[in-house]
Amino acid sequence: MQINVTGHQIDLTTSLQDYVHEKLRRLERHYDHITQVHVVLNIEKLKHQAEATVHVAGSELFANAEAADMYAAIDQLSAKLDRQVIKHKEKAVDHNHGSRERKHAHTKFE
């Protein structure tokens, strides 16, 4: 999984980039078909915003979060993406199992 971090109106320190990498690497625990993650960190007045696009097999997932602290925004973003990745994986597994059941059901009637 490749993680790209960009910043708008913010200095991207190595500790901030390492924190993003640490949090988003955890997504691979749930689903190993993630190819790329693009994270944008932004500060608008007193709002710290983090948004990410996750490229998974056959789809893209998007989430954003806003907090008073950038680390808190990254934590919220990570939690949102975690839920989305789990949901995407469940849909993919259900879809694959459904097609197998239909094939088996179809062969029983022949």
Attribute tags:
110 residues, alpha+beta, Double Stranded RNA Binding Domain, 2 helices, 34% strand, disordered C terminus
Short description:
By secondary structure, the protein is of the alpha+beta class. The protein contains 2 helices and 4 strands; from the N terminus they run βαβββα. Helix 1 runs parallel beside helix 2 (70-108).
Provide an overview of this structure.
By secondary structure, the chain is α+β, with helices and mostly antiparallel strands. The protein has one domain (2-108): Ribosome hibernation promotion factor-like (Double Stranded RNA Binding Domain, 2-Layer Sandwich). 46% of the residues lie in helices and 34% in strands. The chain is built from two helices and four strands; from the N terminus they run βαβββα. It has a four-stranded mixed β-sheet, covered by helices on one side. Mean pLDDT is 86; it is low at 100-108.
